[in-house]
Design a protein that fits this description.
The chain is mainly α and about 325 residues long. It has a single domain, classed as Up-down Bundle (A middle domain of Talin 1), CATH 1.20.1420.30. The chain is built from 14 helices and two strands.
Length: about 325
């Protein structure tokens, strides 16, 4: 079979495996919420843990599988690409589609500060193209502190006890729950295989494919949530989704795979240093610009235009392996 057809076949496999991964993750989160309600957990705890974890579950699954296959570049690309997409792509569209979009730094000082600190910390850890056990543990410790903060200061809503929330879970749902876990594993495995094969055939680093195609694909469900939230002017949902997802990506999607990899004698090592000159600086810039936008009473639509232009620049620059130091 000609190489071009093999490459196209791997693109098809990537699309199928990514779809299986996302659908399985969605059902996993849905069932986890049902189980939480069945055992009468407060809704704010379910939201702060299960749902927040679920938004990063596809990236986390790909990360663990990638590290165990000694493909740490994929993890790095996924983290950088997802965080840039969440701010420049998702938030950019939200600002342009809405009227009166607001971002309040004063109302989310801790979350904004942790996101920026996490971006700086992870950039520092990745600068030497490796993540040690100690660095992984620091990320996970910060994640635990973040969860404690969210649970402690969330709106402590009473536990709902209506029939819909507390009805029994059928055997079929338990079976589908088990299958969703299998789907997450298989989806992550073949997504990783597809990224590795595509990057090899196109002579690109696996971090390039993961921080563009994979990151964009895993951000599409969040885009749907964002559009729905903007229509109903639920700007807090958009902001919470973006900041929470970015914090989980930085701390969990890096920390857990790096820890598992190091403990299983698969050290977290990155072979391509292109992300140092391009991906990491743009990830830091995205966090800084989001904070800058939060000091306006109403976010100007020029920020939306700027964010989308920067995302296009990020996508093109990733494929062209742009070195920002050469542009300055």
């Amino acid at each position: 079979m000609p190489p071009i057809f093999i490459t196209l076949l791997w693109f098809v496999i990537l699309a199928i495996s990514l779809t299986i991964l996302l659908k399985s993750a969605d059902y996993f989160v849905f069932m986890a919420e049902l189980l939480g309600k069945k055992f009468k957990l407060p809704s704010f705890i379910i939201g702060a843990t299960v749902v927040a974890f679920g938004t990063s579950l596809p990236e986390l699954a790909v990360g663990v599988v990638s590290v165990l296959k000694d493909q740490s570049d994929i993890v790095t690309g996924t983290i950088v690409g997802s965080n840039v997409a969440n701010i420049f792509f998702i938030t950019g569209i939200a600002i342009l589609l809405s009227s009166g979009f607001t971002i309040r730094f004063s109302a989310h000082k801790f979350e904004f500060s942790l996101m920026l600190f996490g971006s700086i910390l992870v950039s520092y850890f990745l600068y030497n193209k490796s993540v040690s056990i100690l660095e992984a543990l620091i990320c996970l410790l910060l994640l635990v502190l973040y969860l404690i903060y969210v649970i402690k200061y969330s709106n402590n809503a009473p536990v709902s006890t209506n029939e819909e929330e507390t009805k029994s879970i059928s055997k079929k749902q338990y079976l589908l729950f088990s299958l969703s876990i299998l789907g997450i594993w298989l989806g992550a495995k073949y997504t990783t295989d597809a990224i590795t094969s595509i990057s090899t055939s196109l002579k690109l680093g696996s971090d390039v494919i993961s921080q563009t195609l994979l990151a964009l694909g895993t951000s599409l469900p969040e885009l749907a949530v964002t559009v729905a939230a903007v229509r109903s002017k639920q700007f807090g949902i958009v902001l919470g989704n973006v900041i929470g997802s970015n914090i989980f990506n930085l701390l969990a999607v890096l920390g857990l795979p790096a820890l598992i990899g190091n403990l299983s004698k698969h050290p977290y090592l990155v072979s391509d240093e292109g992300f140092i000159q391009f991906g990491l600086p743009l990830m830091l810039l995205s966090s800084i610009l989001l904070i800058a936008a939060s000091f306006f009473k109403t976010t100007p639509k020029t920020f939306g235009i700027l964010f989308l232009l920067l995302y296009i620049f990020f996508m093109v620059g990733s494929f062209m392996k742009v070195n920002l130091s050469h542009l300055i």
